[in-house]
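=== Structure Prediction Worksheet ===
Name of assembly: unnamed complex
Input type: mixed (protein and possibly other molecules)
Chain count: two
Listed entries:
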Amino acid sequence: MELAIGIILGCCALGAGIAMIAGIGPGIGEGQAVAKACEAIGRQPESKGAVTTTMIMGCAIAETTGLYALVIAILLIFVAPQQFVNVLTSAMGK
Amino acid sequence: MKKIEPVIWKETGFVALVSLILSVLMQSVFLIISHWVKGAWDYTVILGNLLGYIFAVGNFFLMCITVQKALGKEEKDAANFMRLSQLGRILMLFVVALAAYFIPVFNIIAVVIPFLFPRIAIMFRPLASMIKKRRDKDE
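=== Predicted Assembly ===
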């Protein structure tokens, strides 16, 4: 029983860690996008307003992947282990 | 301190409004679930939702300010600044979730779900702009 619980907890932690790999991408992507936006504003300073609006929308969308990963990781760390252990305990009880 | 551009207030206001509507929707879903699962909806869900909502909208607002600041920097500095900001904001949300887990007055699921609301709000943004454009055209 203890071994099974240990495996569940370990797998949940491992899953959370793997999920957070997706958190790296948005940072790199947003950085690249903003760098290019800076370049565009440097070339055409009058387009700053339009570029800012587009950048805000773009960054918000790009960041979603990281947030999905974070939510999955949080659920795997804090919520899933208890649920899995409950399922295991009830299955063992039967 | 640099002045915050009006577009940031406008977008944050829109995101806050849509997130509020989605929060009400989430509360009603919890309420419906509580008919079958006893204790699914209580004050912890409301407090958790409030905490998640504040930090989700706050995260969006901070991202907007970061974009504004980054656009005034050199290319390389802007990219690094954006990466650093993203890391900091993700860590902030993680700490909020951690606090929600250890403080028993918050429901962790009700805290985490609102983090995704700004994305849904952004999804509705083109639709809202289209409706506004059509209304302006009619007038």
